[in-house]
Amino acid sequence: MKRIWQHLAMAMAMLGAAALPGQPGLTVQDLEVQRQYWLKKAAAGDVDAQFVMGDGYLHGRMNLPKDGRRAVEWLSKAAAHGHADAQFELGKLDYFGAPGVAPNAQESVGWLRKAEAQPGLKSKQRSFAQMLLATCFTTGQGVAKDDVEAARWFRKAAESGDHLAEYRLGLCYLNGAGVPQNDREASFWLLKSANAGETDAQVKLAEAYASGRGIPQDYVEAYKWYNVAAARGDDQAQKSREFLRSIMTPRQVAEAQRLSSDYYNRASAQVDSTERIAPPMRLQ
User: Which of 105, 158, 251, 280 has an alpha carbon within 20 to 30 A of 179's alpha carbon?
Assistant: First the structure.
C-alpha cells in the first residue's frame, strides 16, 4: 500500500493539491483529485488502483459513498488478478456481509483460502483469515463441518500469535475436538491466551488450576486467574472466585491478590498507554 500512495503523492503534487491522504486539511477538491486519479488507473486495468477503488467504496474514502456492491465489483477485479488485500477483503465481506452484500460462506472460504496462501499478505490479516477459516470448519459454514480441519486452522492462527486462536486451540485439546484429547497441551495454549488477556481463556485456565486438570492443582493460581477474569466482568469467574475464597487460607488469598495485581501491572507495561489493560472493577 505504501507504494500505491507514493504514486498518488506524485500526481497530487503535479496538480498542486494541498495535502496527502490521511493528513489534516484535505479538501473536497483534494479528494476529487484522488478519486479521478485512481478511477482512471483502475479503468485502465491497474490492479492496485482497482483495490483502492474497492476500498474507497467499502469505507467511504475519497468522498465516495459507502456502497458494498460497487466495492465488490472493484475488489473482485483486483482479486481475480491475485491481489492479496483484495482477496482478503472479499473473504471478510462474504463472511460478515455488508450493506448491499449478503453473506456468502462458500465464496468467503474460497477467497480466504486464496488470500491466506499469498506470501505478501500481512501477518495480522493472515491470522485473521486463518481464524475465519477455522470457524467455518467448526460450524460448517460454506464447507462440510470438519473438526480436524478446524483444529489445523486454529493451530496456524495460534502459531502466528492470534490469542483468540490460542484459546480455541486449547479448547480443541481440552475436548478432543479434531486433535487427540490432551489436558497438558490444552493448558499450554490456555496459558498463552490467558497471559495475552483473553478472558474466556483465563476462566478455563483457572478451572484447570482449581481441578488439577493438565496442570498441578494450585488454588492460588486458580484464584488469581478467576480474579483477573472477574475484574473484566465475567460472572462465572466472580462466583468461582468467591467459592475458592471460602476454602483458602487468608495468606493464600493475599498471595493470589498480589499475583493478580502483578499480572495487570505487567500487562499494562507491555501495551501502549491508550490501550492499557485496566479492569473495569477493582481486583479482590
Answer: 105
Closest to 74 (Cα-Cα) out of 2, 132, 83: 83
- Residue at 52: amino acid letter: V
Q: Give 67-119 pLDDT, tens digit per residue.
A: 999 999 999 999 999 999 999 999 999 999 998 999 999 999 999 999 999 99
List, for residues 185-207, the tens digit of each pLDDT value.
999 999 999 999 999 999 999 99
Cα separation, 70 vs 57, in Å, equals 6
Q: Specify burial of residue 69 (Cβ count, 10 A radius: 0-12, 13-18, 19+).
A: exposed
Q: How far apart are CA 96 and CA 140, in angstroms?
A: 15
First vs last C-alpha separation in the chain: 47
Q: How does residue 283 score in pLDDT terms, banded at 50, 70 and 90?
A: low
pTM of the model: 0.84
User: Which of 142, 118, 101, 4 lies closest to 61 in space, CA to CA?
Assistant: 4
The cell 484464584 sits on which residue? 223
How far apart (Å, rounded) are the C-alpha atoms in residues 268 and 262?
10
Which one-letter DSSP state was computed for residue 61?
Answer: -
* Architecture of the CATH domain 1-121: Alpha Horseshoe (1.25)
d(CA 138, CA 177): 10
Q: How far apart are CA 259 and CA 91, in angstroms?
A: 42
Q: Do residues 89 and 121 touch, judged by C-beta distance below 8 A?
A: no
